[in-house]
Design goal:
Elements: E1 3-4, H1 9-12, H2 15-25, H3 27-36, H4 41-65, E2 75-80, H5 84-93, H6 104-123, H7 131-135, E3 139-145, E4 148-154, E5 166-170, E6 173-176
Helix pairs in contact: 2-4, 3-4
Amino acid sequence: MPVRNNIDSRDVLTIPVKILLFLLSYVPLYIIVIVLNHANNDVVWFFSGLTIIVLLAFLAVYMAIRNVSGTYSRVENVENINKINVEYIVTYLLPFLNVNFNDVFSDIAVLIIFFIIGFIYVNSDMLYTNPTLNLLTFSVYKCKVNNLETIIISREDRSDLNRKEVIQIGSNIYIGK
């Protein structure tokens, strides 16, 4: 897969976009919270609105990223690493399932935990650890680009990666076009 690598990743993947990808990783949880709290209209409306906004914002960012231009490099040693998503679900989604959203202190505790996880997620470039990307038919690959270990998020099969363009969106993280 040719790689566009002469762009400044700060131009494409700013902190708000990283936060968006973090929020996107929790879309399955938002849907579960809606189902579990179906009798609480405030919770249902909040998480329904959040889900729609996050999905639409991701679509807009993905379409914008697809229009970025740059130069090309060779992708080698491709390995599918989607299994990380299962670890993410168990570690970061399951603990939130039994939260009582009718209690202010529970809400505050969830916000604090969510903020801490989000801070770590954004600052450690864990953007590829995202079950929603997998649900949206993206795969996550570890490979080498210009002899550097990288992550590629793409809708392409592993065998097709060398024939498609990817764009750098973070520190050694690329997304397929």
